[in-house]
Amino acid sequence: MIKKTVSNVHEALKGVEDKMTFMLGGFGLCGIPENAIAELVSLEVKDITCISNNAGVDDFGLGLLLQKHQVKKMISSYVGENDEFERQMLSGELDVELTPQGTLAEKCRAAQSGFPAFYTPAGYGTEVAEGKETREFNGKMYVLEEAYKADFSFVKAWKGDEAGNLIFKGTARNFNPVMCGAAKITVAEVEELVPAGELNPNEIHVPGIFVQRIFQGKNYEKRIEQRTVRKKN
Description:
The protein is 19% helix and 25% strand. By secondary structure, the chain is an alpha/beta fold. The protein has a single domain, classed as Glutaconate Coenzyme A-transferase (3-Layer(aba) Sandwich), CATH 3.40.1080.10. The strands form 2 sheets. Strands 1, 2, 3, 4, 8, 9, 10 and 11 form an 8-stranded mixed beta sheet that branches. Strand 2, helix 3 and strand 3 form a beta-alpha-beta unit. It is globular. It starts with 8 loop residues before the first helix and ends in a 17-residue tail after the last strand.
């Protein structure tokens, strides 16, 4: 059995350089690769492009990279919770490409599956379709969207094994699975790492063939982006 484990996040991110393109899983602050993001901050890589559903918050998640001005371009679907992101975007410091959420997911999935492009009705007739090929199918117009190209995918799973098989929990099963195998190198950090063969094959969400490196993360904060509680009676 092939073992894809690395000892720590430092080893997992070997090869990361300036001006690279990274995919980062998660939705809001749920399921984000906290260890990988912290290491990217520590490495002080710059002029990077980040493909992620959102940009975290000011002091956590991808917001940490934005604070250090390490991000040159953000490709995202939703960015409304980060004031620093807004400031950099409006000032022209940050290049931003807003993409419909389903299209963003499908552009990752297309890359994962080896498809160069696909047609979608989302965005037709809007700025999203400007400069892109359009085509009619059965009386409905579609936009041709190209698959993403990335150097690294950083994902976070609940449990994984030494062969790279992954299981996600709850909302963390969002953009993480479609980003596995969608870049040249996929790095998975997990809360629990077990020997190969210990996971129930029927419970695995992503097979290890899509993962090149895996390590057990630590010190997860798992912050809640918007805490809402019921008022006392």
